[in-house]
Task: inverse folding
């Protein structure tokens, strides 16, 4: 009976496969596709609402309108120009751009900071348009659905349960792309689309090169800071100038160039970025040197000098320059009318050596010692809480060396927690890119010394100006600085 059911199900798979072929709008060939165009568009609408819950739109109507105009111009030259496309600049410092099925395309202010011409922006928008026109998300979803059907067949045939996760396909694509073949196809399509509106398709190599430099720097920085790197998925796996396949698709795109060409519009593009929020924004809180400021939560904290600060979605992580000590800071809403020592006893089982702390501004708190899971394994760690109204700030510190507890640096950090002063409100509004003319004798080392960037200032200035690793500005050239 089981064998008969398996034969029936195998026949059903064959019928499904034959019925699920659709013409690819890019290649004109038949693709295996288990969702219709209407279903694809509805998926885009659904997940768009989730994106808007996760990300705010960047508050710059002129920049939003500019990106939309350029995106729509490219979309008119695309293989699916029957669709309405929707373009959004999202308020995120992460270097990213991504597309949802049916024509929803997002670009972060974080990736805009690394662009230096209109044609580079067009290249990224064209790449993401390529994912939509080639129906990469629909193909990925269809593949997942077929995997689910085959898994069900295996259950019938063998009695062994298997399951596929269909819900994560779009999220995975946003983070890591659709695979190298699809990313290369999107590079090819992006080059075609920018050529069709008058740009030089070679500019695709420039923008990929800039983002590749950013990715390499981010990998090195993440290694030093013992964390996962954050990089745009569209960056090609090898350096673009040395990748033969990418060179071939860029060269092939030149047949789509129009007789009327347009410049890369560098200076006008840069002027549009003047005032762009760089890195952390007011909503996320702002790091300046070894200090952190948050307007909405009305607090500031000072970490030890020369320690790195990583602003995570729900916590701050500060790491010593020798990578052997960390301080983690989080926040908790208070529900009980209790004292700080009671709070620690309730939340940290077995906590010992409790002692009161009063911050430099008079806020009350307590500290103690508890065994916790840490980046260095299970360790005796210092724990402290500071009460601010109906909130509790919680700070945890640990040291890599066995039996060693963090000392005065931790207590200095705890005591620095306080409400913002009126004069500090501006500091909490975040760093911004300013467009200036380079003066004779300007170097990135000199500009870095005057920059508000807390870490790797010289390297970051070179990166956002497309001059990494050792370029220098020419006198009179428009460049980006960070204030």
Result:
């Amino acid at each position: 009976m089981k064998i008969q059911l398996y034969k029936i199900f195998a026949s059903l798979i064959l019928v499904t496969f034959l019925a699920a072929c659709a013409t690819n709008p890019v290649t004109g060939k038949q693709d295996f596709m288990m969702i219709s165009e209407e279903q694809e568009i509805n998926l885009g609408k659904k997940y768009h609402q989730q994106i808007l819950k996760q990300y705010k739109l960047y508050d710059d109507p002129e920049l939003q309108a500019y990106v939309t105009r350029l995106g729509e111009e490219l979309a008119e030259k695309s293989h699916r120009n029957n669709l309405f496309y929707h373009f959004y600049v999202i308020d995120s410092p992460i270097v990213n751009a991504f597309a949802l099925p049916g024509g929803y395309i997002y670009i972060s202010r974080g990736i805009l900071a690394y662009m230096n011409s209109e044609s580079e922006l067009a290249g990224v928008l064209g790449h993401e348009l390529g994912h939509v026109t080639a129906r990469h998300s629909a193909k990925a979803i269809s593949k997942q659905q077929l995997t689910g059907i085959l898994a069900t067949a295996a259950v019938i045939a063998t009695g062994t349960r298997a399951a596929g996760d269909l819900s994560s396909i779009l999220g995975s694509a946003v983070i890591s792309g659709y695979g190298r073949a699809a990313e290369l196809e999107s590079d090819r399509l992006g080059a075609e689309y920018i050529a069709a509106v008058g740009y030089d398709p070679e500019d695709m190599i420039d923008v990929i090169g800039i983002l590749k430099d950013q990715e390499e720097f981010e990998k090195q920085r993440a290694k030093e800071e013992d964390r996962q790197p954050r990089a745009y998925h569209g960056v090609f796996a090898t350096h673009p100038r040395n990748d033969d396949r990418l060179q071939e698709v860029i060269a092939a795109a030149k047949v789509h160039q129009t007789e009327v060409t347009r410049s890369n519009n560098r200076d006008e593009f840069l002027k549009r970025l003047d005032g762009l929020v760089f890195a952390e924004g007011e909503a996320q809180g702002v790091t300046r040197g070894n200090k952190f400021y948050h307007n909405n939560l009305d607090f500031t904290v000072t970490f030890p000098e020369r320690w790195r600060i990583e602003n995570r979605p729900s916590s701050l992580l500060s790491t010593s320059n020798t990578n052997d000590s960390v301080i983690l800071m989080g926040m908790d809403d208070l529900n009980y009318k209790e004292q700080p020592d009671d709070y620690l006893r309730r939340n940290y089982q077995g906590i010992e050596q409790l002692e009161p702390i009063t911050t430099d501004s008079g806020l009350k708190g307590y500290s103690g010692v508890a065994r916790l899971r840490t980046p260095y394994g299970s360790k005796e760690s210092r724990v402290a809480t500071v009460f601010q109204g109906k909130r509790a700030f919680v700070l945890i510190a640990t040291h890599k060396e066995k039996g060693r507890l963090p000392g005065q640096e931790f207590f200095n950090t705890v005591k620095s927690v306080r409400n913002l002063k009126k004069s500090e409100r501006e500091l909490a509004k975040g760093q911004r890119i300013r467009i200036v003319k380079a003066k004779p004798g300007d170097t990135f080392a000199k500009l870095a010394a005057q920059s508000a960037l807390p870490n790797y200032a010289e390297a970051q200035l070179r990166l956002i100006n497309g001059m990494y690793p050792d370029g220098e500005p020419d006198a009179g050239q428009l460049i980006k600085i960070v204030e």
Remarks:
- The longest helix spans residues 136-158.
- The longest strand covers residues 377-388.
- Residues 127 and 190 are 4 Å apart (CA to CA).
- Confidence is low (pLDDT under 50) at residues 5-19, 146-167.
